[in-house]
Amino acid sequence: MIEALLQDIGLSENEAKLYVALLRHGQQTISFLSKKTGINRGLGYVLLHDLLEKGLVTKSARGKVLYFSPLDPKQLVAYLENKKKDIGDKQERVQAMLGQLAAITNPLTAKPKIRFYDGAGGARTVLDSILSAESASLQAYLSVAETVHFVGAEYFGRFLQKLTDAGCALDAIRTRETDKDGSDALSLESGKKSRRTVRKAPQEFAFPMTMFLFDEKIAILSSPEENFALIIESKEYADMQKKLFEMLWLSLERTTIRIGILHSLSGTMAISERSLVDAMLMAIDEINVRGGILGRRINPIVVDGCSDPDVFAKQAEELITKHDVCSIFGGWTSASRKMMKPIVEKHGHLLWYPLQYEGLEQSPNIIYAGAAPNQQMLPAVDWAVKHLGKKFFLVGSDYVFPRCAHEIMKGRLQELGATVVGEAFEKLGGTDFKATVRKIKQGKPDVILNTINGDSNVAFFRELRAAAISPKNIPTISFSIGEEEVSRMHPESMVGDYAAWSYFQSIGSKENARFVTDFQTKYGRHRVTGDPIETAYWTMYLFAAAVKKAGTDDVRTINAAARGLSFAAPEGNAYLDPDNGHTHRFARIGQLQEDGQYNVVWSSETTIKPDPFPPYKSQKEWHEFLDLLYKKWGGHWEHH
Asked: Which of 47, 202, 360, 445 has its CA 20 to 30 A from that of 612?
C-alpha cells in the first residue's frame, strides 16, 4: 500500500522500493539496498540520486563508501508542493514556446526513441512487443543460455513457439553454449516447420546478450547480471544493424557438412589407426562424388590423437568449439574414448566410435559401432573351450580395455568350467615380454587370449617364437590384431593363430568384394582391409543416412535420426540399436593363412543384439570396478 501510494504521487516503482527500504533500515550503502530490493547496483545508484534531487534522501561518505539516508516523510508534502509549482512553471514556459517549436519542426525528421525496461519482467515485455512486429521476417543475435536464464526457460520456449504460430521467419546467429539450467530451449536449431534458420559463430565469439532486429527497431536483452532490456526505434540504426547482420550471416553460410576425424597418426597406435582414416576418406569421396548429403559435400577435418588419451580429449574439444563439426569419428583404445566421452557429453555432441571394446558403458552421445563383449570376446571364449582346450593364459596391454576384457572372459571361463593358469599386462607401447613368456611356459596353457594393442604385438609374438611357442603347441586368439596389423608384423610366424572379429577381408559377399577392390584400387594392391577399417567405412555411410533423414547437420537431430538405421555393410547388414546406441554385429573366428588372410572357421548364424553389460557383475559393480582402475592409475584410463 505504501509503495503504491508513493507511485501515485510520482515516484517510480523502484524509487518507491528504495525509499521504503531506507525508511525501514535507516542509513545504508547501495550494496545493502540492492540486496534488499533486488535492484541492481548500477540502476539503484541512478535512482537514489533521483531521490536526492527530489529532496527525499541525503548522501554522505565514509572514506570511499557512500551512504544514503531518508529525510523525514513530511518532506513528501514539500516534494508535492515543489512538483506542483514546477509543473505550473513548465506549463507557462511551454505555452510561450509553442509558436517557436511549431516554426522549427520538420515533419520529415524522425527522432530515435529509446525505451528502457528493468528486470526479467521488462525483458518479457520486450519479447512480447516483438510478437506484434509488422514484418514477417526477423533477424537475431542469440545468447540463448543467458536469455533462458534471464526470462525463464518456459517463457522463452513459449515465445519461440508464438513466433512460429504467427508465421514469423527467424534468421538467427548463435554460438554453441554451455547449458545453464538443462533447458530444452538450448536446442534451438534450424527447422522447416519452425521457419527458423540458425547459423553458428565460433564459441570464442559468444554473445553476452540477445538482440532482435524487426521493423525499424532493435530489441536488446541483457544478461541476468545487468538485468535490463530496451527497445531502440531508429530507421538508420536499424538499417545499419541489419547490414552488419547480413555481412556476418553470409560469412557463416555453410556450404559443406563439417566432420572431425580423430585418430592416432603417430605413436604406438598409428600402426592400427591410420588405415581407418583412409577408409573414412574413401567413403567420403564416394558420397561426395554422388552429390554429397542434402546437396552439400562432406568436409573432413583430420587431426592426430598422437596415441595419447589426453591429446584425444584436447583435440575433441577443439573440433567442437573451434571447427564446429557436427560429428566426431575416432578413437581406438578405450582410454582415448573414455577421455572424449565427457567432452562430447558436456557439449551435447556426438562421437562415432568404430572399435570392438569392453562394454560397461552406454552414453547417449556415443554411437558404438564396434562389437560389444557378447559379440566378440564371449563367443570367442565359447568356441575356444569347445575346440582348443580348457586351460587359458590371458595377456594384454595395461589399460582399461584389456583389464575389463580379462575380467569378463574370466567370468565366462569360470562359468564354462575352464581354468585361468596365468595373466600378465604390459604398458601400452611396451616391448619387454620376456617375463610374460616365461609365465606362459610355466603355466602350460592350451590357449593364449591376447588383448595387446598396437605395435607391442610385434615384440610379443617375437618373444613367443623365440621361446618355441607356436600355434601348433599353444595357439593364440587375438582381439585387436587384424589383417592390417599382420601385414606389418611377420605373418609367416603367425600362421595358424586366430583372431576374433565381426569382419574379415576374406568374407565372400558381393558388397565385400566391391569394398576390397575399391580400397586397393585407391590405396594400392598391397593394402588390406580389416574389421576396424571396414567399420570406419560403413559408419560414414550410416552417418550420411542419418543426416539425410534429419534434413540438417544439427548434432542432436543427427543423433536422434541415426537410431534404428541400418546399412548393407561388407560384413553383412549393420543395424544401430535404438535403445543402447550399439550395432547388431556378426561374431566370427578366423585362422591366419600363409597369404596373410584369415580363413573364417566359425561364424554366428545371424547378427547378435549388443549387450554392453555382461552378467558376471551388476552394472553398479562394473562401474565400481572401473572406478577402482581409474583411481589406481592416478586419474587416467591406462597405466603410465
From this structure: 445
